[in-house]
Amino acid sequence: MLTCTATICTNPIEDQQTISLLISVCLGFALQISQGITEMAESKTLRKPVFTKVDQLRPGTSGHTLTVKVVSTKMVLQKGRADGPQVRQMRIAECLVGDETGMIIFTARNDQVDLMKEGATLTFRNAKIDMFKGSMRLAVDKWGRIEVAEPASFSVKEDNNLSLIEYELVNVVEE
Predict the structure, then answer these.
(1) Tens digits of residue pLDDT in 47-64
(2) Which of 2, 81, 103, 108 has a CA-to-CA distance to 128 between 20 and 30 Å?
(3) pTM of the model
């Protein structure tokens, strides 16, 4: 919202001239801002997402878009939190998801738990890899999105579970 202010004189004729000038200046600014926004919107084109396969996931990476099938779901935590007049439910489930290249544990939180039905095909957008006790976990935070996708034709490769690989952080000291 654009706000223009000015001091108005006591002379009615000068007031009208000042108001007219002020209105024309404000309209000019509004027109320039509107044209700038239109140009920015036209120049910004959305790029197509690059889909990642499960076996390409690495520790500490983020921004992944991938399509997976839910293999299994296990509720880890379910408790109510009293925040004021309403009670909010906090739920966390560990779900084994995968594609034709491998599997990984996905940590589903709150509303995400409802989407994790065994056999469902989902698309994760802006997913990230969290480390938990030295192993990788896939997560989608508030900056990402989970969408229900059309049923996929692939079968999950169950002998390549990336969450079973244990990583260790090693500090390298250069001398």
Answers:
(1) 788 888 989 999 989 999
(2) 81
(3) 0.67
